[in-house]
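Follow-up to my post from last week.
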Amino acid sequence: MNKVLIADAELVTPYGLGTEVCWQGLLAGKSALAETDRFNTDAFNSKWAGIIPGLSYHEGKSLVFQMLEKVLENHFIPSDAKLMLATLNGEMDCVEESVLQGRGEPHACCMTGLLGLAQELCGVADEGAVVSSACASSTVALGLAASAIRNGEYDCAVVVSCDAVTEFLYSGFSSLMALDVNAACPFDAKHNGLTIGEAAGYVVLMSEARAKKEGKVVLGELAGWGMSNDANHMTGPLRDGSGLARSVEIALKVAGIDEEQIDFIAAHGTGTVYNDEMEMAAFHSLFSSPRPTYSVKGGMGHTMGAAGLVEAVLALKTFETGWVPPTVALQTSAEEAAGWVRGEPVELSAEYALSTNAGFGGVNASLVLRNGGVQ
Amino acid sequence: MTANILGTGWLDRESYGSDKLGRSVEYASRVELRKLGKEDGLFAYPVKNFGRLDLVSKRVCYVTALALQDAGMEYSKGWKQDVGLLGTDEYGSEQANLSFFRDYVEGGRTLARANLFIYTLPSSPLAEAAVHFGLQGPLLYLRNQGGSVEPLLETAQRMIAEGQAKTMLVYELTAGLDRCLVVGGDS
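User reply:
Got it. Predicted complex:
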């Protein structure tokens, strides 16, 4: 079995372009959330969002395309890399325009169209595939690509992910009463909903042999991945966290480690009561003692299908810097999260990280990341 | 890699069937697709709120029931199985997306309908099947440019070999024909 290494990665988030700017914002406890004027929010139960600066809305290129242009510009992706595009649903502003203005050809907003654009921007030969698994989309895509590399089917893959804040999504989440009236505060005693955010990013995965051959300075190892479904409800998670725990157990098994070896947790932490309680229930059932745990969504919002990729890339920064970021906006921990989450950074020399995501339809997905790379 | 197909269920505009059982039933005389479940006893127990499911989800539930039956796999209410779902179609959730947003716009852009919104993910029809049949393996939508089902079968095989699930259901949903293939581990 081939070891799967992370050879390159980059993000664009509401903090701006670059993983580093995002990391510094989170580490400083700064929030990139603000009241949005991208569309009229008067009818919704929130006005807050995590918006990437400088994008135009309904003025030509879709939001996610603009985001991908930013994040992929001046970056070299190996032309033989297999391509996976992970998204909740692609160009939703394109759907909005086709309804509002009668613009666009039939099927013009389909995800395969965006996949073609991603292929062009990446400069890869592979036509690629779209992966959609609700808010675990990019976690699942990373797992699928890593699995194929580990199995020797190919030795290099690029996972690209993106989702944007649109009126489409905002109105939908508002209809589900899922939005916090204020900015989201995951794992806080006052958590009461999520804030939608947007992000795009990519991760290049390589077999150890390929990375060695190319002399890559790797960012870490993608050691394990696990996926499961609650088989319970379309929008609500299994309250006892057993569905998410199942995906973690599979990821640990694939990584060949036990739970005690996990040093910190990059949680999904949406800020909804149901999610946060479910996640903490899962962690309590899995771990004999608390691990430093955080959510980035208090800083940038819930970046939907891109969330898992964003969170995995940021977890690598903990390996690099020796710091676990705070959960931005945390004031007083919810009872079940006390002792796990912190409002300030924690210094930690870590070998293994767990990253978790969950989403509509009961999907769960987890990744195990390892510090270091080429041995 | 050759997939180990344990059973297949299919549904088109005039008939439904399953391959191993050699079943093929015409239903064209029936006006409503939803009557199939009741009249032909396709489900071991009723699908909760079946009437509110979107059409794609209903179709997915039908082919799932047919495929599980074809593979000799039982299911019962409250019992969960280590079975995953992997699906592809032609245009994602395009129709559901348009239905949701049109409804929202026609309503004055003030109130969206949650029961339309939940189907705006291409994975949602699979999720409805997971809930009804108690399938707790991986659940995802995977679409390659060519729309071929072969990469899904390979992915399903790999997921089984890796321990993500014991069995995977692979869905190919098209305008003319829906199929669900039950993929097992190496025979």
